[in-house]
Write a structure and sequence with these properties.
Layout lengths: L11 H10 L11 H5 L13 E8 L3 H10 L5 E4 L16 E2 L8 H11 L6 H21 L5 E3 L5 E3 L1 E2 L9 E2 L5 H15 L3 E4 L2 E8 H4 L6 E8 L4 E12 L20 H8 L4 E2 L4 E8 L12 H4 L3 E3 L19 H15 L4 E4 L5 H7 L1 H9 L9 E10 L2 E3 L11 E3 L4 E2 L11 H20 L24 H17 L6 H24 L4 H22 L25 E2 L17
Parallel strand pairs: 1-2, 1-11, 2-8, 11-18, 17-19
Antiparallel strand pairs: 3-7, 4-5, 6-7, 9-10, 10-11, 12-17, 12-20, 13-16, 14-15, 15-16
Helix pairs in contact: 3-6, 3-13, 4-5, 5-13, 8-16, 14-15, 14-16, 15-16
Length: 593
Amino acid sequence: MNYPMRFGWENRHEVVSVLVEYGADRSLAYPDVYWMRLFQPYQGHPPMNQHQSDVLIIGSGAAGLSVALYLAPYCKVSIVSKTTLTESNTLYAQGGVSVVLHEEDSIDSHINDTLRAGAGLCDPDIVRFVVEQGEICIRELIDRGVDFTTTQGPGGTSRYHLTREGGHSHRRVIHAADATGRAIEDTLVARVRAHPNISLFESHLALDMITGEKLGLDANRCYGAYVFDRKKRCVTPFAARAVVLATGGAGKVYRYTSNPDVATGDGIAMAWRAGCRVANMEFIQFHPTCLYHPLATSFLITESMRGEGGKLVLPDGEHFMERFDSRKELAPRDVVARAIDHEMKRLGAECVYLDITERSPEFIRSHFPTVHARCKELGYDITQAPIPVVPAAHYTCGGVVTDRRGRTDLHGLYAIGEVASTGLHGANRMASNSLLECLVFARSTGDHIKDDMPNSIAPTALHEWDESRVTDSDEEVVVSHNWGELRRFMWNYVGIVRSTKRLQRAQHRVDLLQSEIAEYYGNFRVTGNLIELRNLVVCADLIIRSALARKESRGLHYSLDYPEVDETHPPSNTVLIPENWVRRDVTVNALYP
């Protein structure tokens, strides 16, 4: 393997000798450009192009924008967004936010539904914390201008319309028609753009965390991040007192996903390389119903359609969900996705169908205008006939280990939203709990960063990015080929139904890809595609390793070799620890000892 030439070392043996001298593992399990950089203490003046702020937020979905708005009255905030500010998983969230607002509902009912869906791996304290904060967060969104759908209540009064989704025992999903994410995202973006204390960096892609180890300073602290400017094609160090990862999940590791192109697991991979633990990465939620059409491979059909009476049928029109679960179409997503997968494989069918034609055309158009309009563009009229649907990777339930304040193992580094493993979702996320999690943890994390600001370390001088020993690649096809190969074998071997043999095949392939990508990364200038591929292969490795470690079927992880829940031991989380992990001086999360 060729190692990076950015450091002036001419061959692998010199690199190894330096690493071993400072106590590194000779196996070089992490042949990463920064892993080598960390042994060069910084000397000299701050880089001329270093950007500084009090808080650096990486990601611009509901979690990132919300925490920015909480902090902006008290400090200088920078937001880094991979493309445009609005492009995130939040934008495409159709369903809504689960919150107890109806008089027939209760906090305890929401908690019990969440615990049931999580299959024994939710943290009950975190679940209660999140559910109890729900109404406060919704009121804040309403105050900021989010226009949730209303309906006529008793006596002609107006009240918010609540729908019901899979796993919920009551109607408790507040929504803005079928485009809730867009309503929230547009509102928050407008607020963020107008705030004088917030600096925005669109078309910027975070590359890696800058830790004390890399600066010769306090080893267990984050001091900022290297950020790639997609337009100028250069890397700049961003220094901050606190860094918040709000980068979303890793859906693009799979060939078929409801996620946008930005969902490449960047935050999970960066935190892992920086020495943070990750947990429960085997629990990938596959949304049961994405539209099956070559021109709409990522178009989600909201779960609310099933909540409002939509039925899943086979190509011949037969209903089938009652054969798999008494809750039928309202069973949790893992149950519905496996049922669809089973029927497609049994029949050799390319898809199944979702039929909501029992509802009136007026009801369908008013409640699902986004789905109706998009399907109409593609030649389907959901008011008249069933539409073809298939499962697709949708949500990463695991992620970076955090506590209720968003703190990771690394001082100064926080993670909120889908990138984090908080203990809320356990082995399976209940529908519409994810936006709730974003809002609640943005609030608690913002409060902690604000209160801790007097004790935080001011931004320090960071290393400039050194590209003196790398060249432009003339083989970009390597990146596109590896990207395609990775997503194909993850779909085929690490999908809805798994086996030990399939996982081992995937592990062999991901090991080879990691080696290829590390060599390529070390010899050529970085590009956006290369950065994302490097992160995706890390996430793929973490998913496969976690899946191999779980010798049972639980929640979203189903193995043909271990088809039952292991009742001989208490339910346990899968926690992966990087070789450069340094335990905090406080416990980040008691659920992950």
